[in-house]
Design brief:
Structural class: mainly beta
Number of helices: 0
Radius of gyration: 13 Å
Oligomer: single chain
Distance between the termini: 37 Å
Number of strands: 11
Shape: globular
C-alpha cells in the first residue's frame, strides 16, 4: 500500500487545516492509521491514531481538544482536522499504517507516507 498525504500549508495561529491521507495499491481495511509529525531538529512524534472501526482513538496530549482524526473507509482515506493551530504545531506531518490496536510508538507502524508541511505563523 502507498500513502499520499496532502492538505498542508501556511496558516496563522488560531487557524485550521485539514490533512488527508489516501491509500492506494491496497486497502487499509482492518488496520490502524496514524499521524505523526516531525519539527526541524526534533524526533518524529505521535499525533493521533484511529482503529479500523473508528472506535479506538488516541491523541497526543499536546493536540487533545484541538485535533480530530477520522477515516472514510470507503474512500481509503484518513483525515486530521487541526483547529486552533499554534506555532509549535509547525512540522512535517506523516500518515502511517499500523497494526490492529492504535499505538503511539513509531515502531507500531510499517508503512509511511511522504509527509506534508504545516507551518503556523504567530
Amino acid at each position: 500500500v502507498q500513502l499520499q498525504a496532502s492538505g498542508g500549508g501556511l496558516v496563522q495561529a488560531g487557524g485550521s487545516l485539514r490533512l488527508s491521507c489516501a491509500a492506494s495499491g491496497s486497502t487499509f481495511r482492518g488496520y490502524v492509521m496514524g499521524w505523526f509529525r516531525q519539527a526541524p531538529g526534533k524526533e518524529r512524534e505521535f499525533v493521533a491514531a484511529i482503529s479500523w472501526s473508528g472506535i479506538s482513538i488516541k491523541y497526543a496530549d499536546s493536540v487533545k481538544g484541538r485535533f480530530t482524526i477520522s477515516r472514510d473507509s470507503a474512500k481509503n482515506t484518513v483525515y486530521l482536522q487541526m483547529n486552533m493551530l499554534r506555532p509549535e504545531d509547525t512540522a512535517v506531518y506523516y500518515c502511517a499504517k499500523g497494526a490492529v490496536v492504535p499505538s503511539t510508538a513509531r515502531n507500531g507502524y510499517d508503512t509511511w507516507g511522504q509527509g506534508t508541511q504545516v507551518t503556523v505563523s504567530s
